[in-house]
Amino acid sequence: MIPVKILAVRYLASASPALAKGLGAPAGYPSLGLLTTDSDDATYIALDEATKAADVKVCYARSFYAGAANASTPLAGEVIGILAGTTPGAVRSGMEAAIGTLSRVGFEEVHGVPFLAHTVSSAGSFLSKEAAVAEGTALAYLIAPPLESMYAMDAALKAADVRLCKLYSPPSETNFGGGLLSGTQSACDAACAAFRDAVAEVAKLPHGTEH
User: Which stretches of 132-184 are DSSP H helices?
Assistant: First the structure.
C-alpha cells in the first residue's frame, strides 16, 4: 500500500455562521474539522468512516486539480475534507476515526501504475449519498488511471453481481477514473479482485501483446 500523507489538520470549535453555511454545514453543526492529504479517494473513504464513528457530517470534500504530484503549495496535497459536528468533541472523534482509517486504506501499485480497489463494507452518510444507496450498503470503491480504470471497471462489473452506482469517467480532477459499485460484501470483494487483476494486465502489457 502507498502510505497516505496527512498534510494539515485544524479545528474550528465554533465556526463563523456564514462560513459554516457557505461550506454546507447543516444547521446545528457549528464545529468544523479541516483536513488535507495527498490522496483524495483514500480520504473520501476515511471521511465516510468518520460519519459512522461520531455525530458528524462531511460538509465539504473536493479534489484538487492535477493530483498531489503537482500540488500548488506544500500543505495542499490532493484533497480537502471538512467535517461538521454538533460539538468540538464530536468533530475531533470523527477526525480521529478518519486519520485512523488513512493508516489502513490507500492506493496500491502494480508495474508502476497506482490504483485503488477497496470494499467499503458498510457505507456511511457520505458515500451512501455519493452512490445514491442506503446507508449500510456495501460498496466497491474503484479508481485507476484513465484507460486502466475503464478497462478494469468493465471487468469488475462482469465478475460479480454488482450494480454501477457512480461512474467517474476520466479525467477526474486528478486525471484518474473509476466508480462505485454496490452489492453484497462478497460481491464487492470479487469486483475489487477483478479490477485489480485487469489493472495489472494493462500495466504489464499496455498494447495487449508482448513486444
Answer: 146-159
